[in-house]
Amino acid sequence: MSGLRMLAEPILAEPAQLLPARQQMAFTLMFHIIFVPIGVALPALMLIANYKGLRGNDTVALKLARRWSHVAALTFAVGAASGTVLSFEMGLLWPGLTGRFGEVFGIPFAMEGVAFFLEAILMAVYVYGWRRLRPWTHFWLGLPIPFVALAGTFSIISANAWMNTPAGFTVAADGSITDIDPGAAILTDALPYELSHFVLAAYMAAGFTVASVYVVGWLRGRRDRYHRLGILIPLTVAAIATPLQLGAGDLAAVGVFQDQPAKFAAMEVVTEPGSHQPEILFGRYDSETNTVRGGIRIPGLNSWLAGGSTDTYVPGLSEMPPDERPSNVNIVHWAFDVMVGIGTVLLLLVVWFVIAYWRRRDVPHSRLFLWAAAGSGVLTYVAVEAGWIVTEVGRQPWVVYGHLRTEDAVTQADGVWVSFTVIVVLYTLVGAATVATLRAMSRRWRRDDETPDDAVPYGPRPAVAPEDEAAAR
Length: 473
Known about the structure:
globular; about 475 residues; about 70% helix; disordered N terminus; two-stranded antiparallel sheet; mainly alpha
């Protein structure tokens, strides 16, 4: 609770409901984001395994694909439910936002709903089609799932990008919203770098997390082909996404520098404006003296990262009104450093994996690597959560950057503390039930592995060989 309180630190003369509303929104979003990377990227992993199984008549790959499809269906269901709650919270907790700007940014939410329905239908067909459809028919019917998942991601990131770089409307003299342009509202300046940054983060999180599960089994002595493929397929996907994320993250930071100078100043804890700004790793910002205590300083790197030169001028917190700075600079700065630090560690892990696999064509043998890979899934999720903290807390005190303050959008109704408590209890139960279900599935699959493969039909029924078909006739 103390961490959430820091995320929603109140400002002077704030409405009574602002603190619980921000805490409830933060808690709901941080819970929901656990399932989003799996929902976005796991369908791609299962289809890679499915394709490999069909192309090579590989029953082990088909076994992985079928099991991953069950996990994808479960996590999609929980993610869809928690995402729906978030949509309701937008209207119930922030009526000033939806009431004034609903016509502007409402279309992406409608698009997300359509994507949810399509993904649910396709996922149901894929899961229930394993023993009911021909192998390649089953595969082709599942192929659209990752693209529909990306469409849903596009819609929600579009709405968030609009909140960070609002466009597609005009504010009239009386404060009303006119001249609405849905296309401009959907395709804002922040959309390209936010979308690429998050999609790559999702594939990293899913890849490292799935691989880490099988790495733990590998460390416990289960060094069969099933665990080998369970490590190599998702870890290869993560290895492709991670270096790309390095470039996408740099573009995102430059985009924030150009579009949201206050957020950038908080991310990099730039106290005074000017060129030749140092990169400060961690440290603690003192708002009373506008100074940073502690931390590691790398001269000129901040300016160079922002504009490609140490002469780049970077705005500082001192030139911004106190009520227009992020509500907690330390939270934004530390979350940014944690995200970048974890990304760097994972990049080194990927380099290690690529070199080791290139030399041996197998899972790296080093126990240090295996222990690091076993923890990589948790690390990626810490980075994902930290990234959303940077995005959301860094935009404060604005809910629509430069146009609508968070305190002006919050509900005036009583009972938010009650709804927040109910949400915490319900989500705790849902989270526990999800973990229990995944563990039960894992135990059942382990028991199934003790049965000979020819007695357990995994995946779509294999194609009948011509000679077998002739014999059957």
